[in-house]
Known about the structure:
Largest sheet: 7 strands, parallel
Order of helices and strands: EHEHEHEHHEHEEHEEHEEHEHHH
CATH architecture of the largest domain: 3-Layer(aba) Sandwich
CATH superfamily of the largest domain: NAD(P)-binding Rossmann-like Domain
Distance between the termini: 45 Å
Number of domains: 2
CATH topology of the largest domain: Rossmann fold
Number of strands: 12
Mean pLDDT: 95
Strand content: 15-25%
Strand order of the largest sheet: 3-2-1-4-5-6-10
Low-confidence stretches: none
Helix content: 40-55%
Structural class: alpha/beta
Shape: globular
Number of helices: 12
Amino acid sequence: MDEKIMVTGSMGQIGSELIPALREKFGNENVIAVGHHTEPDQAFKDAGPFEIADAQDKEALRGIIEKYNINIIYHLVGILSAVGEAKPDLAWNVNMVGLKNILELSVEYKIGRLFWPSSIAAFGPTTPLENTPQKTILEPTTMYGVTKVAGELLCQYYHIKYGLDVRSLRYPGIISWKTPPGGGTTDYAVAIYYEALEKQSYECFVNENTTLPMMYMDDAVRATIEIMEADPEKITVRTAYNLTALSFSASELADNVGKYINDFKCTFKPDERQKIADSWPSTIDDSRARKDWGWQHKFDLDKISVEMIKNLKNKIK
C-alpha cells in the first residue's frame, strides 16, 4: 500500500519543516498538509495538497482521512507553554480534544502509524533535573505540561486497548530559522539570533544560568521520521521517548553567538517564563531512544550557530 500521510499543525514550527522532508521522501502528492487558519505562502500550497481544518472538528478531520485514504498521521497541533499559561482553556481544548479526535479516528480507519509530539514540559519541579531518566516523576506546573502528560498516557492507552501503533518523542527546545518564535519558553534560543543580526543586542527573558536541553530542527525532523520508520518491535516506550542533543546555559548561547556576530551584547531580564524554565530539566537521559531505534544527533552548538546565522542573513536582509 502506498503511504498517504496527513500532517496536522502543518504551519507550525515542526510541521513547516517536517512536511518538505516527508514530501522529498514519499512524493509531494502523498503528504497532505492540514492547517487551522494560517494561509500558507504560494510555494507551500503549490508543493502539495493543503487542507484547512480545526483539530477540534472531528468531522472535518474525518473528511480529509476519507478523501485521501490516509494511513499515516503526524498530529502536530498544539498550543505551546507560554501561550498556554495565558489561555489555559484554549490549550486544553486544542491539545486534548484534538488528540482524542485523532486517536479515535486512527482506530476507526485502521491508521497504520500515528505520531504525536510530547515535550520536556511533561516534566516538573519534582522531576530530577539532571540526567532526567526515561521513567520519572511527571508533575508539570503548566497547562501545556498537563496536556503533554495526559496525552502521553492517552496514547499509551490506545496502544494497549486498541493496538494502535502510536509513537511519541519528548522534544527538547527546538532551534530553527524558518519559523519565528511562537510562544514557547525555549524561544529565547531562536529569538537571540534574529535580534543579534538585526540589533546586535538581545534582552533574554531567562537568567544567564538557565540551562535547558536543546536541539537543532534538522535533528528533530530526522528523529521524528526515524522513530516512525523503526520496526514496531523495537518501540518499547508507548508514552513518549526522552530525546535530546545538547544542553547549554543562556550565557553560553550568548557567548557562542558573539563568536560569529561582532559587537553582540546580551542582557538578561527574566520574566514569567523563568518560572517555567526552572521547572524543566537541564539535562536528559535519552539512552532508551539511542538503544531502541538508533537515535544520534548531529548538530553541536557551533554548528547550530553557523547554520542559524547563515540562513537568517538571507531571510531578513
